[in-house]
From TrEMBL:
Protein name in UniProt: Membrane associated rhomboid family serine protease
Sorted UniProt keywords: Hydrolase, Membrane, Protease, Transmembrane, Transmembrane helix
Membrane-crossing residue ranges in chain numbering: 20-43, 74-94, 106-123, 129-151, 158-178, 184-202, 214-235
Pfam family, one: Rhomboid
Domain Peptidase S54 rhomboid: 64-192
GO molecular function: serine-type endopeptidase activity
Homology family: Belongs to the peptidase S54 family.
UniProt topology in membrane: Multi-pass membrane protein
Entries under InterPro entries matching the protein: Peptidase_S54_rhomboid_dom, Rhomboid-like_sf, Rhomboid_protease_S54
Subcellular location: Membrane
One GO CC term on file: membrane
Gene Ontology biological-process annotations: proteolysis
């Protein structure tokens, strides 16, 4: 008997608990707690050793500290920044994870994070210090919008939320619009690859559709990595 699969080709999980969503939230809270403890302050946690070592600093990434591309996505500028991102991740993640499957959702989350970092490195001033899960969360916004189109649901609400958040990115000082848009583009593209590209290229089986989806995620990840490498060369 073939396993029951979601529209994304993922096996239907035996447990409905969104473990990836909860795990990502737990990791973000954990790293925030570490930075707060090191800094001796919840508000000024950015003064911690971990924050200084992981924050997205373009010149240091260009010097070979590539781990900052991902590590910066698990740091936050104070409790409000953390709370807003984790609330958004929770709301979107618990809806996405059952459809995409745990591994696909985690992959798209990470690709979105990398895509956001890539855009920040390419388009933000070199003296910028970046941190936060916002790029990845914007990728999840794009992913859920694509998923709603695929399921023939009305995407108006999520599109309005995306639009409002983009406007806020433009109006609030210190918020990185390019990181947000880079994450949004990466997450949207990767999810299109999972949910629509197999149909567009005429995949003839579920197995080939799943393969095309994974290849699509990989292509987005490679494109983001190439953008990071290009940014590093420009900065260096």
């Amino acid at each position: 008997m073939r396993p029951v699969r979601t529209v994304a080709g993922a096996p239907v999980a035996k447990s409905a608990t969104p473990l990836v969503t909860y795990g990502l939230i737990a990791l973000n809270i954990l790293f925030f707690g570490i930075t707060a403890a090191q800094a001796g302050s919840v508000v000024d946690n950015f003064r911690s050793e971990l924050f200084l070592r992981w924050a997205l600093v373009p010149t240091l990434v260009a010097d070979g500290e590539w781990f900052r591309v991902i590590g910066s996505g698990f740091l936050h500028w104070g409790p409000l920044h953390l709370a807003l991102n984790m609330f958004a991740l929770y709301i979107v993640g618990i809806q996405l994870e059952p459809v995409l499957g745990r591994v696909r959702m985690l992959s798209i989350y990470l690709v979105s994070l990398i895509g956001g970092s890539a855009a920040g490195l390419l388009l933000e001033p070199v003296n910028t210090v970046g941190a936060g899960a916002s790029g990845a969360v914007y990728g999840m916004f794009g992913a859920i919008a694509v998923t709603m189109f695929r399921l023939r649901m009305n995407p108006t609400q999520i599109l309005v939320i995306i639009g409002i958040n983009v406007l806020l990115s433009l109006s609030i000082p210190g918020v990185s619009l390019w990181v947000h848009l880079g994450g949004l583009l990466a997450g949207t593209s990767a999810t299109l690859g999972v949910l629509f590209v197999p149909q567009w290229v005429g995949a003839k089986s579920q197995e080939s559709a799943r393969t095309i989806g994974w290849v699509s995620i990989g292509v987005v990840g490679l494109a983001s990595a190439a953008a990071i490498a290009a940014a590093a060369m420009m900065i260096g």
